[in-house]
Every structure is written in structure tokens, then in C-alpha cells.
Amino acid sequence: MRLLVWAAFAAAFTAGAAHAAPLPFDPEEATQAWLATMGPEATARSNSYFEGGYWLDLADSALNIVVAMLLMVFGFAKGVRAGLERTVKFYFLVAFGMALFYILVSGVVTFPFYYYVGFVREHQFGLATQTFAEWFGEYMIGFALNLVIGALFIAVLYLIIRAAKSAWWIWGAGVTLMFMLVLIMLAPVYLAPLFNTYTPMQEGPLKTEILHMAQANGVPASDVSVFDVSRQTNRVTANVSGFAGTTRIALSDTLIQRASTDGVREVMGHEIGHYVLRHTSSILVMLGVLIAFAFAFTHLLFGWIARGERWGVRAISDPAGMPLFFAILTFLFTVAAPVQNNIIRYHEHQADIFGLNASRAPDGFAETALLLSEYRKMSPGPLELWAFYDHPSGYQRIRMAMDWKAHEMAAGRIPVGPGGPPEGWRPDFVVMREGATPEPSPAAALD
Ligand SMILES: [Zn+2]
User: Fold this and answer.
1) How many angstroms does the Cα of residue 172 sit away from the middle of ligand 1?
2) Backbone dihedral region for residue 308 (phi beyond 0: left; psi -120 to 50: alpha; all else: beta)
3) Domain count of the chain?
4) Measured in angstroms, how far is the CA atom of residue 348 from the centroid of ligand 1?
5) pTM: predicted TM-score of the whole model, two decimal places
6) Neighbours of ion ligand 1 (CB under 5 A)
7) Segments forming the whole domain that contains residue 61
């Protein structure tokens, strides 16, 4: 019987495929034509940048775990906790002081690594635009924020661990989500301006189009801001953030400079999609489940590793065990990274489709997918995609756009034309690498 059902399914699927409408062009061929605009050199560089990232992520986790374990094994954590208990006494302050110590020490020890990843390597691949002094200044602002906000959060978490005993992982996950939500709400208003300057976008047809697209999709925004990402990098980016009265549409100056009008519209359509589909809430709920699981496992592993008051740790609520606590969490989140990536990628895929339908700019989508190839490998294998990608791959995005374009053409909703890139079009970074100046994009001409 079951076999029959499967047979019926299979028949239905093959029948569906056989009845696919004829298309004005082959989406796969068009996708390959777009990908070919990169050329072998840029493709190799993109692959090497992104694949190197897999190892750097692993090294990052390993380094943090080693530093934490050294603090445990050599008795530093126990010593600092004893000192804090003698001086500041209150449990909250002991936990807060321990967190400051832990973040500060690991920050100093791991600095060379982050200097390489965040500065040296970004320059090697031609992505960064900052001098060392500029980069270091911003690194320190970020570190100071991390120190204060992080220590505050950890101290609150320890209060919960002590109060809720073996049920702390549920309450802890809830409080973590609340913390993340507050940060997401405050960041655009209070944190982002520490790193970039936001100015109203110049009036013009592009701005009008963005606002129309936003309002047509129910985004309550009446202005568009431009922020100077070019200060840090030439990456293109944008976002729609905030709630109710504070909704803000922002795009990077690099996006306006580098992408065509259609490219900008498509990126804004994608960002509007995140907002309209309420992805912040949805991602937080899914991550919340992951965090609760991670906390529960941390509880079990911590009890097992620190049994018999090893390294002077009295219980999981003892701040002397803080480095061990975060070593375990780091390990678990490294193992669960594919789950997290899949949660994010699921939402990014939705925003991609939304952006295509809102902007109706498939070529703009293909173009910006290629601009992102500077730091994201275009054509990964299926397992690689599953494990490491928090966005659809460049290949998938261009293919999605070409499928959309071919079917819209076939349906008579857009004029029939060729599928691939415009004649002679190549990504700006490929042109620049060859020593030529890229043609100013139509969007730049609008400014
Ligand atoms: Zn997105």
C-alpha cells in the first residue's frame, strides 16, 4: 500500500516536470553566464577567502577554549574569585568583576588573532579601507562596549543560575533573548552612530522608488538614510530596522556607488522583506530554542567536568567556573554552528524571494550577488552550503533570479529578452583588478 502511495507521488512529480511551460531562455545557462563574468582569478580569490574562513572560525573557538582552560587549570579563576569575595562581597558584584577579568584577559591574549582576521587579512583581500589607527580605534570602542554590556549580561545570568538552580537554562535562555531584543532595538539608535555617520539620502528618483517600494509593502518609513560604510570597507550593505515609530531604512554609500539602480532596488527589496516578514522575532524565537538546548547541555557537561570541586569550583553558580562555563558554551555553539546557519539561511532565502517580487529586478539581484562574491564563495557543494552558509550561495541567488525572470517573461509580465548579463558587463572589482576604472553605475549618476 505504502509503495502505491509513493508510486503515485513519483508519477505526480514526473508528470509535473513533463508539463513545465517552455521558457524564453535556459535559467541554468543564464546563471552560468553571470558567474563567468567573474573570471577564474576572482573566482579563485573568492573561494580562498571564504574557505579560509571555515578554518578561522574553528581556530577562533579553539583559541577561546584554550585561554579559558588555562585560566581554570592554573588557578587564576579561583584566585580572582577569592579576591573579589574578600573585597566586593556581594554575589552580583563578584560575578560582574569575574566577567570583567575574564573578558579583559581573553581580549588581550586573543588580540593578535583578531588583528590578523579583522585587519591584516581584510587588507590582503582588498576589502578594507582603514589605516591601522582607524581600525584600532574602532576595535577598542567595540571591545569597551563588549566589556561593559557583556559583563553586565553575564552577571545577570549568574544571578539566574544561582536563583533558578537546575531550571536556570530555561530562565537563562529567556533572559538572553530579552537582552538580545533590547540590544537590537537600541543598536541602530545608540551603537551604530559610534561607528558610522547617518545622513538623509539625497532627493532623487532612486530615493523615491525605495520609499514607494517600502510603503507599498507596509513599511512605515518616510525617509531613507545613507551611512558611510566606505570608512571601513568596500562591502555593500543595507538594513531596515526599528519598531513602529522608529522604523528606519538605511543603505551604505558603497551600495549606491557600486550597484546599478536595479541592484540598489533589489537589495532594498530584500531588506524590506526581512522587516515585513518579522524576521527579527522569528529568528529570536528559533535561536531561543537553540540557546535553551545549549544551556541545558552546558549544565550537564559543567557538572561532569567540574565534579568533586575540581579547580576549586564549588558549583555551576560559582563565578570561579566562569571560563569553564564559556569554554563549554563555545564548544557547543561551534558544534551547532550549522543549525544556526540553517536558521538564518532559511530567513535569508525568504527575504531573497520577497526582494525579487518587490523590486522585480532579477538582473539587479544577479549583479549584487556577484558584488558579494568578494567575500562569499559562489558555488559551494551541498554539504558545504548546509554547514557553513548563513545566506543562500551566489549560485543559488542568481539561479533564483534567472528562474524568476524566465517565468515572468513566459507569463508575459516583463518584456522577453536574453537571460544572461548585459553585453560586456563585469563586476567592478574585476575591472579594477585589471587596472581600469569601472564605468560609473547608473545609480551613481543619479546622485
Ligand atoms: Zn538578509
Assistant:
1) 28
2) left
3) 1
4) 5
5) 0.88
6) 348, 351
7) 25-187+288-446
